[in-house]
Amino acid sequence: MDAKRTRHEKALEPTTFVLSILMAAFAAIICMQIISRIGITPNTSIIGAVVAMALARIPFASMVKFRSLERQNMVQTMTSAGGFAAANCGILAVGIIYLYGEPGLVIPMLIGSTISTLVGMSFVYSAFDSDLYPGDGAWPPGVATAQAIIAGDEGGRKGRRLVEGIAAGVIGTHFGLPMAGVGIVFIANIFAMLALGIGLLTRGYSQQLFGIDLGATYVPHGVMIGAGVVSLIQAIIIIQRGSKAYKIVGEEKEARKKTVGSAQMQRTAFVHLGLHLAGAVVLAIIGGILAEMSFGTMIVWTLWAGISALLAAILVGLAAMHSGWFPGFAITVIFLTLGLFMGFPGVPLALLSGYVASSGPCFADMGYDLKTGWILRGEGRDPEYELEGRKEQLIAELVGGVVAMVIVALFMNMHFQLDMLPPVSRVFATTVTAGAGEPGIVQQLAVWAIPGAILQAIGGSGRAMGILFATGLLINNPIYGIGVLVAVAIRLVIGTEPMEVREAGLIAGDGIYGFFSAIAKAFF
Hints:
two-stranded antiparallel sheet
């Protein structure tokens, strides 16, 4: 172990860098196609890991270096950054502006999206392994990727279990079963997953249960606002008081000091609020919206854009850490809706939507990748070694994000000409165009914020039950809800040991099948 820790693999080492750049660009192109065609993005992190593992087995001297688990981690980090940033941030943001009818503002929006995306990456890097976002938190996709890399390296029993899980994941996903959701249940907090499953079923069968379609109301948004407010209060309390994390080692509890202390986390939050505010000012200037608003309204817009981007990243990160879901779209809709009632004009609202929507996805994505690296580097037992490796991952993630935005700049006009843009972009553009036409929305949001707040308060910050229940209400996927609840029941009966590594295989199999089937749907 000491020999392995004499030096870290470097993200900018030529061989790793070139392969990672190519993988990030490939993932960006593919994921832009996929989100535009079918509205989702697959788990590119596991694809990057699989490619790196495959390269390590090519019998050439130049490929031997890819047997390093950290090098594989660098490749998958940059790959997932490229795919997530291009699809969930770049093309989504510029699509909003284009569909709103302001093609002249596409470049300013792309610049604003790039700023928000890179700040989000920096934020999660600075906050990872704090009391708010502990390294030993769930981060299910990150755990799955780490287990897949380790099992692929060690082979034997772990390797067999991984292959079994991947096979089951591929077969089950082919037949429409939510295999990733089942795998996540055996990694994530069981109370959080129970709340998510109930939320998914409530939304999916609301017509049969209550005679109304919750998706056509603002009930889910109200619940999320209430849960979000309480969650933010809980986050502030956690940051201010600080705490120790405990890991079970045998039958004893061993205290593990986190690498990001309470004071450092406070500074991190303020610094990144400042960065988001600065980004909002830049966007306002290059977007030419200063002339559309009075000085006072401009100040309010800038503050709202910066604060919304930060809060969106925090809430998306909490949901992602606890459940593996990142409800970036749903949370952005909330800030957009509130912006409507604040009276902002159309173009500033459209720019606000793209800016806020870009802050959360890569926060979640990099959180998963940092979790993978945290496991591969020994789960924080050597803090100095962990921090050095985490810094290399930040470099990989930022490079992947920049590559993604370059790819968006090169290919977005083709997407515009083919009318190939994310469905979510159309929703945002339509919402901004329609404006606040329903006077009862504010009352509906306020009323339904109460149960969301209560549920989040009861569950506490460690379970995020209010956030996850609201996430389920915002997503129309009842089959996933059924799969989650069935898996919860199975876990209560058999525990987690029989699924060890297999649950990672389920997630990987689901991701691999989803990736290639999505490519088929997008291109053929």
